[in-house]
């Protein structure tokens, strides 16, 4: 019996089509998706930001741009990136990873630099990606307890959320530690003048997100949820980041896709999970996801183009003289 060439032929055609197409172009956009993507944010790093000539050519005016602080990145690079993006007209929200901040004096210095050079008034506070603290802090709660952000007049203080159980936080499984931390942050939100929200890790399936958000509401946790979404990227890239970031059960969506050779050649796009969440939000207006936050795993331009083609607002015209 001869070997069928159909799967190979389909794979080749899929690759050719991928090279030709403009992701999301010429596809109908639902009003639900437009509403859901309104005011989305996006995350960059100093090294990825240098590859963007002008963010105004890619992002809607006033977009919130998170700046991820990876261990080993000098604070000077972080501040310079914040200054550049702020000068282009965007709201900048740098990460403050507790476990790489040496002490309170270092935290105060970072805050002073961000404010003095880039006018920063927003921050994402999180534990950080290193296993062992390099100084006095190991959690975002300790950063909040210093009172330095309130003293500096920060207007927005976001903290991390995890739609799926995370073994780094709850090594025995479940959500006991996660929910204890969220309870503390909920109470802290009542004592600060800053607006607070949960900026979450990304996942690839809508139902775990829906269940988690509903569970938070049932527990009386009402901090707005800014849901993390992985932007378009090669499947291999997506799986690598998902494993590194501790993505849980929804990782099976990628694993299933990886078994199909015709899909292995195509980028993974977030259209399905976003459409499901947008539809749920439209049917349940009180559902507590208020923003979408993109992790640009496949590149900032790729992510921004996808967002525009799929219901996000258009980028602002750039004045070459401005």
From TrEMBL:
It comes from the Bacteria. InterPro entries: FAD-linked_oxidoreductase-like (IPR029041). Keywords: Oxidoreductase. SUPFAM superfamilies: FAD-linked oxidoreductase. This is Methylenetetrahydrofolate reductase. It comes from Pseudophaeobacter arcticus.
């Amino acid at each position: 019996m001869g070997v069928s060439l159909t799967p190979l032929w389909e794979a080749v055609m899929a690759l050719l089509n991928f090279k030709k197409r403009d992701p999301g172009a010429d596809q109908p956009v639902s009003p639900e998706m437009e509403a859901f993507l309104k005011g989305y944010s996006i995350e960059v790093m100093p090294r990825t930001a240098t590859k963007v000539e002008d963010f105004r050519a890619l992002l809607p005016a006033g977009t919130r741009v998170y700046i991820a602080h990876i261990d080993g990145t000098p604070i000077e690079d972080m501040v310079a990136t914040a200054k550049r993006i702020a000068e282009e007209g965007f709201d900048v929200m740098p990460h403050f990873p507790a476990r790489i901040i040496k002490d309170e004096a270092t935290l105060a210095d970072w805050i002073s630099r961000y404010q003095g050079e880039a006018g920063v008034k927003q921050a994402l506070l999180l534990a950080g990606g290193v296993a062992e603290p390099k100084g006095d802090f190991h959690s975002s709660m300790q950063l909040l307890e210093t009172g330095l952000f309130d003293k500096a007049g920060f207007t927005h203080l976001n903290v991390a959320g995890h739609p799926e159980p995370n073994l780094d936080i709850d090594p025995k499984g479940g959500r006991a530690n996660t929910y204890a931390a969220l309870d503390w942050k909920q109470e802290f939100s009542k004592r600060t003048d800053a607006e607070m929200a949960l900026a979450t890790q990304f996942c690839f399936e809508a139902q775990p997100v829906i269940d988690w958000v509903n569970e938070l509401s049932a527990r009386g946790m009402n901090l707005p949820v800014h849901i993390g979404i992985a932007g378009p990227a090669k499947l291999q890239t997506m799986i690598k980041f998902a494993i590194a970031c501790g993505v849980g059960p929804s990782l099976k969506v990628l694993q299933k896709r990886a078994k199909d050779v015709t899909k292995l050649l195509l980028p993974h796009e977030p259209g399905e999970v976003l459409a499901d969440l947008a539809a749920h939000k439209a049917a349940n207006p009180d559902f507590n996801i208020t923003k979408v936050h993109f992790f640009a795993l496949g590149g900032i331009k790729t992510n921004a183009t996808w967002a525009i083609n799929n219901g996000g607002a258009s980028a602002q015209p750039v004045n070459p003289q401005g």
